[in-house]
Design brief:
The complex is a heterodimer. Chain A is α/β, with parallel strands linked by helices. Chain A has one domain: P-loop containing nucleotide triphosphate hydrolases (Rossmann fold). Chain A has eleven helices and ten strands. In chain A, the strands form two sheets. Chain A has a six-stranded mixed β-sheet, with helices on both faces. In chain A, helix 4 runs parallel beside helix 6. The N and C termini of chain A lie far apart (42 Å). Helices cover 39% and strands 26% of the residues of chain B. The longest helix of chain B is centred in the C-terminal third of the chain and has 18 residues. Chain B is built from eleven helices and ten strands. Chain B has a domain of 74 residues. The interface between A and B is large, with 45 and 39 residues. Chain A: Pfam families: ABC_tran, oligo_HPY. Chain A: InterPro entries: AAA+_ATPase, ABC_transp_ATP-bind, ABC_transporter-like_ATP-bd, ABC_transporter-like_CS, Oligopep_ABC_C, P-loop_NTPase. Chain A: This is ABC transporter ATP-binding protein.
Chain lengths: 270, 269
């Protein structure tokens, strides 16, 4: 079942030169894809590929210049008011830098209750208890609910960001470089957490990333973007093992790898 | 192999309100001429503090113990004047963010020229020629013209090439590269890694390459030092560290790397 459908999404930015001359720049150029219920679709690309602009359009944080966005069959391209609030109740975002996306003056409890207040949801047992449950689900100690974001490590803060996204029980979570800023050991834990949460709740992810190795660990399908366009879209196995596009091949070849012979010997030792 | 850099029992201590804290503890390693030693670790491991100690660039308040010798010259405790003479000439450093290391108000050519003349003197015209050569060596197209451009007129990868040109203009015997490719796209990273390996090979200098990325280290270093919370947990040839890690922490780090080929437990489509 298709949850979200992006059709010919286009974003043009207009820059004004010193003499008032306009120069257009097409950041995203007629991008189309479906997100199916329960799957993880990764959107990968290098800087300037348009992947973040695409993420912001499907999160409805940015209005597309052209194209349409459908959620569960409903056209939400220009959704406002109640329709937009309903969309936000279904689609949530986890950002790259937890410290700049969490209010430093709010306690974790207040941060986790905010989406419920906005959506007018009153869970059984109250919002406070719900916030504590969320903390437990993402592996944080619920006794720390009155602490502030600065009192947590980077990995823990990202768990708060994930918990906030899950607060309204969304059907789609957009992760915009959600694990890019983390140390490798912490990153592995957060990836595992994201996978477990999906197994438990059955929602979909759109996973925006520049790191293809991370994408391989989490996505069933991959869209590769370059210069504002999707150059290749297929299952993770297809794209990684049998890439059709020249740019995808370049990207894959550029990834630094540990000598497979060394890897084999290390694994045998264990 | 004659040793170019010898670091012995290096300890770096910072005073804090809760007493002194060792951010680097008893770290020892050597760098030979014509080799690359990688220092790898997660944030807070002390890898950058180690490199700043070598360059004599530690923040005010830091105290050091141990010994750092470059070509037999003790660097720890050297005077500011002596350090200024060494830096940029016999040892150079490149950083993660070239834009914050370049002055936005001066052309890149002038900045490299200034560094060169501070160490080697000579006329502007002669220095300009050296600068053009250095920019050509790092693969910057049209170097005569590009030397007259300002930092913001270059892409991230080009700026890192400019930083490398600046670091190598006096032909140092030691280059310290601190996360030089971390901020770059993966295709650009591959180009810069190749460039660094080529230039190091041609010049026969020693290189210390610092990164959090184990796969990057494995592709460029002959020997590897793994750090954690200021301590040296493992030190050996790249092959030893990657194929037969002795320490649990190294094994954990290696297990954490997401695999691009041969994913251990790939999600089913």
């Amino acid at each position: 079942m298709t949850l979200l459908r992006a059709k010919d999404l286009t974003k043009r930015f207009v820059a004004r030169g010193p003499l008032g001359a306009k120069a257009g720049f097409t950041a995203v150029d007629r991008v189309s894809f479906d997100v199916r219920l329960g799957e993880t679709l990764a959107v990968v690309g290098e800087s300037g590929s348009g992947k973040s602009t695409t993420a912001r359009m499907i999160a409805k944080l940015l209005e597309p210049s052209e194209g349409t966005l459908e959620f569960e069959g409903e056209d939400v391209t220009h959704a406002k008011g109640a329709a937009l609030a309903r969309f936000r109740g279904n689609v949530q975002v986890v950002f790259q830098d937890p410290f700049s996306s969490l209010n430093p003056r709010h306690t974790v409890e207040r941060i986790l209750m905010a989406p419920l207040v906005y959506q007018g949801i009153a869970p059984n047992g109250g919002r406070r208890a719900h916030a504590k449950e969320l903390m437990e689900r993402v592996g944080l100690n619920p006794d720390h609910s009155l602490r502030y974001p600065a009192q947590f490590s980077g990995g823990q803060a990202q768990r708060i960001g994930i918990a906030r996204a899950l607060a309204v029980n969304p059907r789609l979570v957009i992760c915009d470089e959600a694990v890019s800023a983390l140390d490798v050991s912490v990153q592995a834990q957060v990836i595992e957490l994201l996978r477990r949460l999906q197994r438990e709740s059955g929602f979909s992810y759109v996973f925006i990333a520049h790191d293809l190795a991370v994408v391989r660990q989490i996505a069933q399908r991959v869209a590769v973007m370059s210069k504002g366009r999707i150059v290749e879209l297929g299952t993770t196995g297809q794209v990684f093992d049998d890439p059709q596009d020249e740019y995808t091949r370049t990207l894959l070849a550029a990834i630094p790898r540990i000598d497979p012979e060394w890897e084999r010997r290390r694994r045998e030792k264990i | 192999m004659s040793e170019l850099l010898v670091v012995e029992d290096l300890t770096v201590t910072f005073p804090t309100t809760r007493g002194p804290v060792d951010v680097v503890k008893d770290v020892s390693f050597t760098v030979g001429r014509d080799e690359t030693v990688g220092i790898v670790g997660e944030s807070g491991s002390g890898k950058s503090m180690t490199s700043l100690a070598i360059m004599g660039l530690l923040p005010r308040g830091a105290t050091t113990r141990g010994s750092i010798r470059l070509d037999g010259t003790e660097v720890l405790g050297a005077s500011a004047r002596e350090l200024r003479r060494l830096r940029g000439d016999r040892m150079s450093m490149i950083f993660q963010d070239p834009l914050s290391s370049l002055n936005p108000y001066y052309t890149v050519g002038l900045q490299i020229e200034e560094l060169y003349r501070a160490h080697r003197g000579g006329s502007r015209a002669a220095a300009r020629e050296v600068v053009t050569g250095a920019l050509r060596q790092v693969g910057l197209p049209d170097p005569e013209r590009r030397a007259r451009h300002y930092p913001h007129q270059f892409s991230g990868g080009q700026r890192q090439r400019i930083m490398i040109a600046m670091a190598l203009v006096c032909s140092p015997s030691l280059l310290i590269a601190d996360e030089p490719t971390t901020a770059l796209d993966v295709t650009v990273q591959a180009q810069i890694l190749r460039l660094l390996a080529d230039l190091r090979g041609q010049s026969g200098m020693g290189m210390v390459f610092i990164t959090h990325d184990l796969a990057v280290i494995s592709s460029i270093a002959t020997r590897v030092l793994v750090m954690r919370r200021g301590e040296q947990v493992e030190y050996g040839t790249a092959e030893q560290v990657f194929a037969e890690p002795r320490h649990d922490y190294t094994r954990m780090l290696l297990d954490s790397i997401p695999r691009i080929d041969d994913p251990l437990d790939e999600v089913s489509a």
